Amino acid sequence: MATKAGRSAQKVVSKVVADARMYVPAGQAAPSPPLGPALGQRGVNIGLFCKEFNEKTKHIKGGVPIPVKITINSDRSFSFTMTTPPVSYFLKQAARIEKGSSTPGRAEAGAVTLKHIYEIAKVKQQDVVMHNIPLKSICRSVMGSARSMGIKVIRS
Q1: What H or E segment, with its residue span, contains residue 17?
Q2: I want to staple 111 with a disulfide (CB 3.0 to 4.6 A). Which of 11, 72, 135, 152 is the partner?
Q3: Any bridge partners for residue 68, and if so which?
């Protein structure tokens, strides 16, 4: 049987209602679409989220896509976690291209060196999900992403 203190503690804890995942440009979060409607329909204070997100990403170059997972509670409070930008963003920056090849394997969109692959893998290793994965495996994954985008990996 629960005590009165136990029952009141259960009422204080808010339940997670929804999770929202999206890419938000660093330092440029605004209540406009697509961010505003996605959070507004769940009752989140969009202005507060934008202010907190822009504050946390002010040290990152503006416009870099940041993957964000927003956890929304039943009392309309929220918390969010950010990870490093996607591998495709880094590969496009290293190869100096706008987009990948429309026919990967046949037409090349650009080229990157193994040094670029290694540097991208070191950045991605900082993600929470990548902490226990060897750097060599992350490099192979980045090379696979490059291949699927039509970016050639050269040795020197």
Answers
A1: strand 16-25
A2: 152
A3: 22, 82
